[in-house]
Predict the 3D structure of the following.
Amino acid sequence: MAEVSGRAKELGTENAFVVLAEVNGLLRQGRDIVSFCIGQPDFPTPVNIQDAAVQAIRSGKHGYTPSAGILELRQAVAASMGRLRGLEIDPDEVVVAAGAKPFIGYTIMTVTDHGAGDEVIYPNPGFPIYESQIKAMGAVPVPLQLRESRAFNFDPQELAAKITPRTKLVILNSPHNPTGGLISRRDMEEIAAVLRQHEHVWIFADEIYARLVYDGEFCSIAAMPGMRSRTIIADGASKTWAMTGWRLGFAANRTLAPYFTNWVTNTESCASQISQWAGVEALNGPQDEAERMRGIFHERRDLIVSLLNEVPGITCQSPGGAFYVWPNVTGACELVGARDSEEFRSRLLYEAGVAVLADIHFGPRVLGEGQHIRFSYAASNDAIRNGVQRIADFIARNRV
């Protein structure tokens, strides 16, 4: 009998979509669920961007584009990326793809060799596709633990201790999914100092939430002295302009851009031309709607943090960016007799009608850090109040 490969069998997934399917199944049964499980803006794409896409369709922009993307979009990306990071970026450094996610795999495939023992350091907890892609591409995953005591960042000296001659790539994500943590300038300078000692290591800077910062400042490793040539800057349209379904992402690195272009040619051919013209408008057009959405996310962050900290057994730090909170629910698990965050998550869904994700959906639980769950606060204020109240009521009626 024909069989699938071991690689396919081991390929991981993104559990937000797994839980979302579970939630949708309950909704079809008529259950009332308040969902905080999926990380996407709950706003429509701004109208000027929609109009640009319609205009692209009406004007016959239906065909293939160059694999790297249309020049107009690469110019817009280079200018926008550069302004935000204080860099001069050339359009020839930029490659466009169907979302920012493909660049995770493209980067790993470009800087590691399958089965050669090449190591990739990545944050844990972290976006689950990091570990999944590292394994699928035949590299060795090396988790770098994020700690609550450091506002869900890692100690740069722990990074230094994990780098070996086999290390080919370090993945950084700031602002961070799932915790909302933001790497401070001081920490970024220390991280750069560590990496300057290891010139053989590439850096993948996942900066998809760069424009969703509420406290402090966004700081890119690419802007640190000596780091730019080895840094792949990854960004996209999904989060800032509420364009998740348009599938439009971009990466910039002068050395790797030709290789990324070849990967795009070998996989998706090119990103949708219609989405690319919409992206030009997103980057070059008015930013009022993007700023309005960011302001609303900021208000929601403050609301959900304050409400969660009133719930017995839950403590929640205020994250610096993105649209996630990562509350510690160790006490809540004890109060209701849940053995861990995953049982707590499941009971919240089926007994309280609240959908969240557990810490183990983002990598192995960090030893000594307790139990956590993730909320995406891309939800209305009413949903936030309703959902947190349901959790408080669930804990109150299930105390052991």
